[in-house]
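Worked problem 6 (solution included).
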Amino acid sequence: MPFRSLAVIASKTRMGGNIHLLLGTLLLSACMSMQKSPINTQAIDTRYLPSPDIQLVIDGLGPCTDAGDRTLRLKSGEPVNILVHGCYASAGRFRALAQVFAFQGQQAICYNYDDRASLAVVARDLRQSLDSLAGLTGHPEITLIGHSQGGLIARHALTTGIAETSDLNQTRQQLITLSAPFSGIRAADHCASHTARIISLGLVIPICMAISGDKWLEITHASDFIRRPGRLHPSVEEHLLIATDEAGSCRTRTDDQCREDDYVFSLAEQKLPPTLTSPLVRQITLKAGHTEIVGIGEHIPEVLIRTLQEEGILGKPEPARMSAYDNLLKTLYLSEWGRTATRNLNHVPARIHSD
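Solution. The predicted structure is:
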């Protein structure tokens, strides 16, 4: 249901100011501030990847494109990086990052899901898909990388409450989350507010459902999904929590003027609840916008790429391949958006601190 229609409903409740205030804050920043990602059906260039010896069809998992063929072609026993998108996105949004991994000979695939579905349900489905992948490919090392809402889903999929016994638990696992709102989405607070339900004559619930779907309550700070998400399974070796300081960021510019900011979540929203802190969790904070961090719009994700390289997750190109690597990044991230600017990819990323 479009926001305009919701405003018409609100105006008929005679609660004018209060309802319109609610509607303004209920445009949930997790998704409503994000543009729907363009369809990207271009195949991954596999020339540098190990020769595949297995073909699989697993629910939700597939190449990082929006093409109809979701068949996985992998080298069994080799490490696999799995990318989980956020709101208003799809597997194709991470095609560029998957290609960067492929350039270094590293396998990367994507998990695709309905971003309006229940996060708990999606996480269980992801867990089942990961379990199938682990069992069918010889228990390779798996690195799960989730952005924004995808970070919430990725973490929940690796908790003890979903599956105690599975093939995945026999596999080395690493979790990386980017810009994930672990403390709940502040803009959605009214969805969990009893006061808001009263002053809206009950309209706040259907409004929240219309805007965000079945996950409407799960993304609030008061939900069990946020407050009691469960602990990571012992088979997870580390959770690298990458928070983004998005203040002052810009998503798109025109004539050196910011046309659209890239601020979605505060650092407080991205903070892991104290009850879930453990030696497994290591947090770093990077100065980057919410979509800038993963290279959407006009940005090469230099900060993320450099950080993944420093953490040993993404390989560094050999000196003889640096020119080809630079050209690849420009083609992937700038040409796609009609940009021809060159970027210096050798500067130090804006890491603020590491905990």
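Discussion: The domain at 31-184+223-354 is CATH 3.40.50.1820 (Rossmann fold).
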